[in-house]
From TrEMBL:
SUPFAM superfamilies membership: RNA-binding domain, RBD (SSF54928)
GO cellular component, one term: nucleus
Organism: Gossypium raimondii
Residue intervals of the RRM domain: 33-108, 130-206
Subcellular location: Nucleus
UniProt-listed Pfam families: RRM_1
The protein, known as: RRM domain-containing protein
Lineage top rank: taxon: Eukaryota
One GO MF term attached to the UniProt entry: mRNA binding
Keyword terms: Nucleus, Repeat, RNA-binding
InterPro entries, A to Z: CID8-like_RRM1 (IPR034823), CID8-like_RRM2 (IPR034825), Nucleotide-bd_a/b_plait_sf (IPR012677), RBD_domain_sf (IPR035979), RRM_dom (IPR000504)
Length: 218
């Protein structure tokens, strides 16, 4: 497992205990330790990006996202201290893949991922390479319509989880493809309209697991 996953568990547990003022202070601290990286080649993985920035300081989180307006992607890289983030700004213009990346101070913190959802095995890590995370899905669109959309544009879908609630106006989905190449193609679907909304597609950090059943105690 990549080193930058290590802080998430403590971060999640601690955040629940913070009041509003303390949480804002912690969030502001995270922002100061985070840089925004743009113009990232589609072939670059989070591990490769984290490897580049590890020369600036300890990387504690790295999140690559799809950009609906470009074939290139963007990312947020969080360091253990502000010095690492300041040093990282010097990497602007560095060639990574086929493009020079741009590095700016971040205006937002990285939202943590619940560690229990992260891949637990090599098989699940392989599943993640075939999976995308899709947001801003029109509530009127059915699961079958989401599947048909991605299959017609990208390739065979082997598993799909469509999630939503009564609070948010749109829904999210995790889409697992039969082939990793299909997941890469799916990233280019960001900005396409599904129903009445332009969707956002990013690489998934979590596999689509079967519905959870409670384990029996031994």
């Amino acid at each position: 497992m990549v080193v930058f996953y290590q802080r998430r568990n403590n971060y999640n547990q601690g955040r629940r205990k913070l009041n509003g003022k303390a949480f804002r202070a912690q969030r502001d601290d995270s922002i100061k330790r985070t840089v925004y990286v743009s113009d990232i080649d589609q072939t670059i993985t989070e591990e490769q990006l984290a490897g580049l920035f590890s020369n600036c300081g300890q990387v504690v989180d790295c999140r690559v996202c799809g950009d609906p307006h470009s074939v290139l992607r963007f990312a947020f890289v969080e360091f253990a201290d502000e010095e690492g983030a300041r040093t990282a700004l010097n990497l602007g213009g560095t060639m990574l893949g086929f493009y020079p990346v741009r590095v700016l101070p971040s205006k937002t913190a990285i939202l943590p991922v619940n560690p229990t959802f992260l891949p637990r095995s090599e098989d699940e890590r392989e599943m993640c390479t075939r999976t995308v995370y899709c947001t801003n899905i029109d509530k009127k669109v059915s699961q079958a319509e989401v599947k048909n959309f991605f299959e017609s544009a990208c390739g065979e879908v082997t598993r799909l989880r469509l999630l939503g609630d009564n609070v948010h106006s749109t829904r999210i989905a995790f889409v697992e493809f039969a082939m990793a190449e299909s997941a890469i193609v799916a990233l280019n679907c960001s900005g396409m309209v599904l129903g009445t909304q332009p969707i956002r597609v990013s690489p998934s950090k979590t596999p689509v697991r079967p519905r959870v059943t409670r384990p029996t105690s031994r």
